[in-house]
Here is the input.
Amino acid sequence: RGLNGGTEELAQRLGVTQPLLFRYFPTKIAMIDRIFHEIESSAFDRDWVSLLTDESVRLEDRLVGFYSDYFEKVMTKENFRLFLYRGLAWPESSHRYYGDMQRLIYPAIARAIRASLPAGARAKGRITDRELEMVLTLHAIIYHLGIRRWVFGIPLKGRIRDLIRLKIAIFLRGVGAAAIGK
Here is the structure.
């Protein structure tokens, strides 16, 4: 029944009483949050930050490695559809996962992109809102592969890693031109 199922039916299927469910989870949203916490904690890899900040590896290769792993671990059919549904039905419950991406992954990507730019085009100090917006654009480009595949059922032509490499190459050439004002 998915996330639309009622707690009474869930309790019955589990062979417990509905009050017992509410003893552990005060609301249905709390129950759903716990489910997503389990999914997200098993899918989110803290090593991604190390991968993204390893300057001994070319930026394009770091991004391809990260997004290929991200796509494999996080953007499965089940996860993708659940995350999308949750974001639409309960947007307030999406902040924990999005928060990890905002706190850990997006700044690491932004710093890596900044370091790859010509010295005169690099911002200084804290990562700027503009830099984060560029990272969100990159993320959306990759995320769209999941939308095509898991929402619209459009088969992807080619291997995921190759498609990710293509998208990242296009993005990096564009971000470089934007940074120097061309």
Notes: The longest helix spans residues 129-151.
